Amino acid sequence: MPQSLSGTLHDGYHTLLQRVYFEHTDFSGIVYHARYLNFLERGRTDYVRLLDIHHNELADGAHGENLAFAVFRMELDFKAAARIDDVLKITTRQGELKGPRLTFNQKITRGDTLIVQAKVGVVLINEEGKPRRFPRAMVKALGL
Amino acid sequence: MPQSLSGTLHDGYHTLLQRVYFEHTDFSGIVYHARYLNFLERGRTDYVRLLDIHHNELADGAHGENLAFAVFRMELDFKAAARIDDVLKITTRQGELKGPRLTFNQKITRGDTLIVQAKVGVVLINEEGKPRRFPRAMVKALGL
Amino acid sequence: MPQSLSGTLHDGYHTLLQRVYFEHTDFSGIVYHARYLNFLERGRTDYVRLLDIHHNELADGAHGENLAFAVFRMELDFKAAARIDDVLKITTRQGELKGPRLTFNQKITRGDTLIVQAKVGVVLINEEGKPRRFPRAMVKALGL
Amino acid sequence: MPQSLSGTLHDGYHTLLQRVYFEHTDFSGIVYHARYLNFLERGRTDYVRLLDIHHNELADGAHGENLAFAVFRMELDFKAAARIDDVLKITTRQGELKGPRLTFNQKITRGDTLIVQAKVGVVLINEEGKPRRFPRAMVKALGL
Asked: Domain D8-141 belongs to what architecture?
């Protein structure tokens, strides 16, 4: 299952394959619910990475202030369980931008099975934790 | 700040103090959003523990089948940032029981500051991952 | 099992009680080996906290430069398995200070059962990642 | 940087590329030491996966009893710091088999920089936690 390390950019969305390892599971035998948030974060990060937006450059002030993404809201529906050794596909689609607030629609699937559906709201914050408008270049790259 | 290891049972809700350690933070200097789910899970677990409901007994069939809690839905609002060394209070209040679905209302605060607000839906699943009705003793203990 | 949130300072060592939650276990039914490092870090952190050394103050330059602890070496022996709901005791004893390198001897036990034995070497690093001598007040507090 | 999702099998060793995401870092700005154990575990898992040894099959009794890998000893040297967005290479080389104990020599590098060096001892345990001899097919696959 070859893929770029950062997944694949499609027209208006992004997909990333990720494996379930020991660290993601819990004693009930399935993936621990909080671990899916890590998979979702990787999907968002690699989506914007392929649009040439990088956390390390943001943190180093490439867009003026030192900036970092922060999540302000999540709605998560856990639909089915994933297990050790499963290969999961994380699909990330950007939704709308309202002022400084950007929404991503994401899902995690295994083959045809929907595992998690998520709506994730993010902002860009500066070092004081204040939300900042998305830089124009970033808005353009995201096609918003 | 002495407390029972499992927090404190109040009339209709539960509180638990938890410290922010290295492992909870990320390079942006604040707590990584997915870590709050661990704090929330501890709150729910210790709430039902003080009602004499134990994960290890559930898993060993104390209520008939081998059972484990699973989260099926979360709504999370991240309102403010927590930092290294902060002491957080997790407040857990059970909401309603609809068939096999139990909702908890939770919040994480630092002093008067609301950090995270959460609505968490859980079910009890058996080893095949099928939702099971909450045992009568558990429903009674939860005051539902 | 009441304790201070930061554990107990004894003559020359420190103990901390910690519960095993869902997040610490994996699908094999026991605690995932990497999670013990989180417990060990809490032991070290709360030991120095009770000696009035705080990560947030170190990071804010309370001892001159902005400093943070970093681990440079660990030897870990995993002797027995811990399980969900177990209460573990983390015992931390400082070993010797050689130049900028401080060694802690730690163990994790459940009752009389030794779960993990660890030897952990730490340094204080500045923002460029360079090791710094331990501040005199810290050395004195640690009794070295 | 295309690679198979499970890394690459070389003559006597295995390499795997992994990205550093938000979840791996801490407030000091670098990767939290315990997260490297997750990378190391992925290296070992994908090495044996490419030798056709699968955790889910082991757990389902493909080799007789239900079996799982467990770590019994680690020696870790943290040599340099990794940061957000870094691409790390995990190299895994099996060492020797002594009775039920198998040692892996592993390292994590970023380009020419050595980040972590590790010696990891693992055993196969059954559901009671007892160490079991490695199945002959597995020993042969590992070239031991």
From this structure: Roll (3.10)
